[in-house]
Amino acid sequence: MPEILDIASLPSLSDVGFTAGRDGLREFCRRIFDAPVPRFLKNENNQLVVFRNADLRAFGAAPEIGNVPIGTLFPSRYMETDDPQEKLPGWEIGEVIGKQVFTFNPPLHGPARRILTSWLSPKGVNLMEGVARKIVNQIIRETADGEEIDFVKEVAERLILGFWSELLHLTESESQSLGQHARNMTRLFYVDRTDDDLRALDVAFSGYAQILAGAAERGLAEGDPIMLEIAEKLKDLDFQDDPFETGVVPKSVGDFLAGNLIDGVHTAALAAANTVFALASTPNAMELVRQTPELVPRAIAEALRLNPPVLFLPRFSLRDFHYDDLIIPAGNMISMMWGAGNYDPATFADPEVFNPNRPPAGLTTFGGGIHICPGRYVGVMLVRVMIEEFEANGVICEPGNNPAVWYPSHKLSQLKVFPVRLRKDAPQTV
Q1: What distance in Å separates the CA atoms of residue 178 and residue 221, rounded to the nearest whole number?
Q2: Which of 289, 333, 338 is nearest to 312 (CA)?
């Protein structure tokens, strides 16, 4: 007979010494996977924590486990105040994220997601490669040979920002502002956000949304086919707004872009930096990839398994979920530790070893199920193109004299600084 899972009785993340951030996740995995129990944990808010690979994939595929509705994720956006003009901290964040497919549930989720996946499909992403190569080559030309730089700011962020700025036809001023707003979005992923963080994020999200709204308006006025297609498909999203389950329908192309390009302008830069970090810090890995180009896709997958940009994100039990002999009741927030799934030895032998020949089956880097990251193809393409253009131009990325630094107490595996030298006199392979 199934029993309701007593979440309050579970061991907590703090009980096992979890401190968040990339390094905290690694220490957590070393401890927790050596122990036969527990199967689940709870966080400081008494929410269920799922961390084992098989469980993550099962929860990710279950229709009962949906996205966290925006009214639950950012309640300040929907709280009534004595002053109707007052905006509580987090209001602007909720306004933007409320138009993101990661806060939608059926029946809105499917058709809204298809608008995004049609644009960012493998075929569509292939057509974007030329833009990516142009930006990478510009970075190579403008970077001094052998001089120590911060790869995060001088390469990864420049690549991502330049790519989207080119696709969206942003002005130089808009591009610079977008980059600053994207950097300020890092506060969104602090484990312990303060009201000051929320206010700073409100400024960043408001400015970011205004830039993308302007780009959408220009694109529509100039007949941009992508903007016109999105606008046409948005008309079919004939659903009642429901911030506490279904979601809030984007009312404009600008709304849709702002809600769904947050990962594109912020988190995609992490994938580029994290991949190169894994290659540069593993003996002979960079040389192996240079000599065996066909290994590049698997090397990227393995690098992002070891350093997945997203460590954990919340989901929500829309209905009672019967799982094995347990019931997870409806209305529960669930912390999905996607990063931990990549270190589960039940799925990946020697999980801390970089193995570019490792089959990618079972990866939880991009989440899973119907809510898997819709931008994963463009993110991986940008990393692959960067590696290919480095090789084509005889560029080798070497660690700098100073150590890399990761953000602590963070929901992402994000480098704060990654000193490297780009050496341009490397012999090209044949």
Answers
A1: 21
A2: 338
- In three-state form (DSSP H/G/I as H, E/B as E, the rest C), the secondary structure along 320-388 is CEEECCEEECCCCEEEECHHHHCCCCCCCCCCCCCCCCCCCCCCCCCCCHHHCCCCHHHHHHHHHHHHH
Count of Cβ atoms closer than 10 Å to residue 403 Cβ: 9
Domains of the chain: 3-423 (1.10.630.10)
CA-closest candidate to residue 424, choices 145, 134, 31? 145
Give the global pTM.
0.94
Q: How far apart are CA 182 and CA 157, in angstroms?
A: 9
Cis peptide before 107 (omega within 30 of 0): yes
Task: Answer yes or no: are the C-beta atoms of 279 and 289 closer than 8 Å.
Answer: yes
**SS3 assignment for 23-76:** HHHHHHHHHHCCCCCCCCEECCCCCEEECCHHHHHHHHHCCCEECCCHHHHCHH
Please give the chain's pLDDT, 430 residues, in tens.
789 999 999 999 999 889 889 999 999 999 999 877 789 999 999 999 999 999 999 999 999 999 999 999 999 888 877 777 788 999 999 999 999 999 999 999 999 999 999 999 999 999 999 999 999 999 999 999 999 999 999 999 999 999 999 999 999 999 999 999 999 999 999 998 999 999 999 999 999 999 999 999 999 999 999 999 999 999 999 999 999 999 999 999 999 999 999 999 999 999 999 999 999 999 889 888 888 999 999 999 999 999 999 999 999 999 999 999 999 999 999 999 999 999 999 999 999 999 998 988 999 999 999 999 999 999 999 999 999 999 999 999 999 999 999 999 899 999 999 999 999 875 554 4
Task: Say how many C-beta atoms besides its own lie within 10 A of residue 336's C-beta.
Answer: 26
